[in-house]
């Protein structure tokens, strides 16, 4: 959590500074931003909730640093990005702790159930958002 404020606040400025100085750095940063933008679709759609759930998923590449990069790229407000990252990290820690304490067989079953629930939850949220936008 310590580097997150710096990533959220200064990533774009630092990236533009580096890109102006070095072509290899510009290519690397372009690749980094493209990958972060690809992962940002649920975050872009649901903002705080999307970022918190993105960080909470205990998979490689979905942690707080990537969440901070996505928040910076999407120009999320600082405190919203910090709180979403914080609660996502806490939730991920609780999930991993739960899965470790359950044992392998129950962890696999719980992982499958959580995947099904999360897929169902995203579809409900998307439908809810569509119904809100169509009624406006």
Structural summary, described in words:
InterPro entries: Sm_multidrug_ex. Pfam families: Sm_multidrug_ex. This is Small multi-drug export protein. Keywords: Membrane, Transmembrane, Transmembrane helix. Helix 1 crosses helix 2, helix 1 packs across helix 5 and helix 5 runs antiparallel to helix 6. With 136 residues, the protein is mainly α. It contains seven helices and no strands. The longest helix has 32 residues. The radius of gyration is 17 Å and the shape is globular. The protein has one domain. 86% of the residues lie in helices and 0% in strands. The model has no long low-confidence stretch (mean pLDDT 84).
Short synopsis of the structure:
The protein is mostly helical and 136 residues long.
**How many extended strands?**
0
Order of helices and strands: HHHHHHH
> Uncertain spans, ≥5 residues at pLDDT below 50?
none
Radius of gyration: 17 Å
Shape: globular
Estimate the helix proportion, in percent. over 70%
Assembly type of the chains comes to single chain
- Structural class, by secondary structure, is mainly alpha
Mean pLDDT: 84
Tally of individual domains: 1
Keywords: Membrane, Transmembrane, Transmembrane helix
GO cellular component, one term: chloroplast
Pfam families: Sm_multidrug_ex
Transmembrane segments: 78-100, 106-125
Name some characteristics of this structure.
single chain, 136 residues, mainly alpha, 7 helices, 86% helix, transmembrane helix, Small multi-drug export protein
How are the SSEs placed, and which strands pair?
Blueprint: H1 4-21, H2 23-39, H3 41-46, H4 48-56, H5 64-73, H6 78-102, H7 104-135
């Amino acid at each position: 959590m310590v580097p997150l404020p710096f990533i959220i606040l200064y990533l774009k400025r630092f990236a533009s500074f580096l890109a102006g100085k070095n072509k290899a750095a510009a290519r690397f940063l372009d690749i980094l931003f493209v990958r972060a933008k690809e992962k940002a679709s649920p975050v872009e759609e649901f903002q705080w909730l999307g970022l918190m759930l993105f960080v909470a998923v205990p998979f490689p590449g979905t942690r707080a640093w990537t969440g901070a990069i996505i928040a910076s790229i999407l120009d999320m407000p600082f405190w919203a990005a910090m709180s979403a990252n914080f609660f996502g990290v806490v939730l991920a820690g609780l999930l991993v702790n739960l899965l470790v304490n359950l044992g392998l067989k129950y962890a696999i079953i719980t992982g499958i159930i959580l995947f099904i629930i999360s897929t169902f939850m995203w579809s409900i949220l998307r439908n809810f958002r569509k119904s809100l936008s169509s009624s406006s």
